[in-house]
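RECORD TYPE: protein structure
NAME: DUF4870 domain-containing protein
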Amino acid sequence: MDNLSAKTKAIIAYITFVGTLIAFFINKDNKHEFTTWHIKNMFGLLLLLLIAQVTQAYVDLFFGEILWFIAFFLWAFSLVMAILDKKQAIPYFSEKFQEWFTFLD
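PREDICTED:
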């Protein structure tokens, strides 16, 4: 799978949690900065989605729904940016995701 482009790996990262794992392991041997950036971004979005699910179940259904829709919108935006071969950041979040998830480098 070494012949996959950085763009293809980045798109794979946005296909559920499993896609993020697949993209991480494919990118591990032949690292691309573009792919790594999108993997970190998706990992952060997955955590945001997890927070939304926990909020829905244990805190407040309405607030959890709002968080879920925000996470979904940000995921769709990020997927489109990967398809367009861009590193367009989600304001505030992408910068923090890159800073926090250095273990994914």
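COMMENT: The chain has five helices and no strands.
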